[in-house]
Amino acid sequence: MIRITDIMCFLEDYAPSELAEDWDNTGLLIGRREAAVDRILTCLTLTPDVADEAVEQRIQLVVSHHPVLFRGVKQITDGSSEGSMLLRLIEHGVAVYSPHTSFDSARAGINRQLAERFGLTEIQPIRPHPELQGLGSGRMGSLSEPVPLPQFLGQVRRAVRAEYLEFSGSSTAVVSRVAVACGAAADFLKDAMAQGCDTFVTGEARFHAALEARAAGVSMVLLGHYSSERPAVEQLAAELSAAFPALAVFASRVEQDPLTVFTS
User: Fold this and answer.
1) Contact between 255 and 247 (Cβ < 8 Å)
2) pTM of the model
């Protein structure tokens, strides 16, 4: 019998808690470690519709990239949508585990996956971990050959299956050395510039970060938060399935980007 603690051991090895940022809330957030598990669902964010899916599919463990209970709470009641969702999960015996920034920075984590999808070589952390050799936050590397920015944008959009991209930079710019930080990670821009990167790719950024990048002559590419992280959530389901072939593991089928493009 496979128990949640067995899955936790795998996830801790895959995305060590030492890699989590100090402000984060990772690990088992809801549930009993010794509970049996035979069905696992992965998702980017645990929303009410994903929680309903978990209950309907008789899931015992949800691995959600973004943590629930991210900030301190004083009560869990049906007086809020989050409280109602958490109560429903608890009442149906659904445990929740979040790897979050540990997964971002893991050896085969989200940023490494993005860097490889974009064709980068000689991949290294943007911010090396002081105690873990070769690990750290963000990733940077070089293309085998420099390419025009429009060509790189096309490669990136296809790699993450994004409906569209936003970018700041000249259409005549050339891409050679690239920094990557998934999610909302514009704070890595200064690190990327200090490391000599001509292009910085993240999920989302504030207006002034785009202005800063443009002023520094660095191309900034915004994938969208969802597009920057959802492919790795699907890959994690495949990794768990390979490690535990007796279990049914799949990425949420109802989850979708909360943002859509209005074109009319």
Assistant:
1) no
2) 0.94
Enumerate the β-bridge partners of residue 220.
168, 200
Cα–chain center distance at 234: 10
Angstrom distance (rounded) from CA 161 to CA 231: 8
Strand partners, 147: 175
pLDDT at residue 49, rounded to an integer: 97
Residue 109's SS3 state is coil
Residues in CB range of 34: below 8 A, 6 or more apart = 3, 4, 5
Do 58 and 125 form a contact (C-beta atoms < 8 A)? Answer: no
Residue 243 has pLDDT above 80, yes or no: yes
Q: pLDDT band at 264, cuts 50/70/90?
A: confident
- Taking alpha carbons only, the member of 196, 213, 63 closest to residue 124 is 196
Q: Residues 139, 124: contact at Cβ < 8 Å?
A: yes
Q: What distances in angstroms separate CA 256 from CA 45, 184, 225, 231, 253, one per listed residue?
A: 10, 18, 12, 12, 8
- Joined tokens for residue 177: 């050395």
CA 86 from centroid of its chain's CA atoms? 22
pLDDT reading at 70 higher than 80: no
User: How far is the C-alpha of 162 from the C-alpha of 156, rounded, in Å?
Assistant: 8
Could you identify the residue written with the tokens 């050799």? 133
